[in-house]
Amino acid sequence: MIQNQLLRMDNVSIVVASLDESISFFTELGLTLEGRAIIEGEWAGRVTGLPGQRVEIAMMVTPDGHSRLELSQFLTPSTVSDHTNAPVNSLGYLRIMFAVKDIDEMLTRLIKQGATLVGEVVQYQDMYRLCYIRGPHGLLIGLAQPLGQ
C-alpha cells in the first residue's frame, strides 16, 4: 500500500492589483497580516517560469491559524490577463469561502470596504446562510454563516 505523502495545504495565492487595498479588505474580514516581502531573483523565476519576476507578497492568516492566503502583486512582469470579473461558471480560480459568525454584520462591514453583493443572501437547508461578494478589484469571495451551532 502506498502511504499518503500529503502533509497539509499551506496556502492559497491570489494575484491582486493593489496589495494595500487587499490587505485592508482581508483584515476587515478577520484575517491577520503575518508578513510582507518582495520575492525576486533567479530562483523565483525558475519556480514560476517567469524569469526576472519581482513580486510583493503579503501572507494573511485566519483566526484559527490553520489557513493562509498569499496576496501577490506583480511588479514585473505586468499581469497579462484578468479574470476577476468572470462569471461563477468559469474554469479555473473561482472563489474563496470563509465561515463567519454573522453574515449580515460582515456584509455591512465589507460593503464599507467596497465589496458588492453578487446575488443575494440565501439559506441552505438548516445548515448555512450563504452569499457571494465581489471584493477588491472583483475578487469573488463566499461567506457562509453556519446555523444551529
What does this structure look like?
- This protein has 149 residues and is of the alpha+beta class.
- The chain has two domains: 1-79, 2,3-Dihydroxybiphenyl 1,2-Dioxygenase, domain 1 (Roll), CATH 3.10.180; 91-149, 2,3-Dihydroxybiphenyl 1,2-Dioxygenase, domain 1, CATH 3.10.180.
- It is built from three helices and nine strands, in the order βαβαβββαββββ.
- The chain has helices at residues 19-29, 42-48, 103-112, and strands at residues 12-15, 32-40, 54-61, 68-76, 96-99, 116-117, 122-124, 128-134, 140-146.
- The strands form two sheets. Strands 5, 6, 7, 8 and 9 form a five-stranded mixed β-sheet that branches. A four-stranded mixed β-sheet has the order 1-4-3-2, sandwiched between helices.
- A hairpin with a 5-residue loop joins strand 8 (128-134) and strand 9.
- The model has no long low-confidence stretch (mean pLDDT 91).
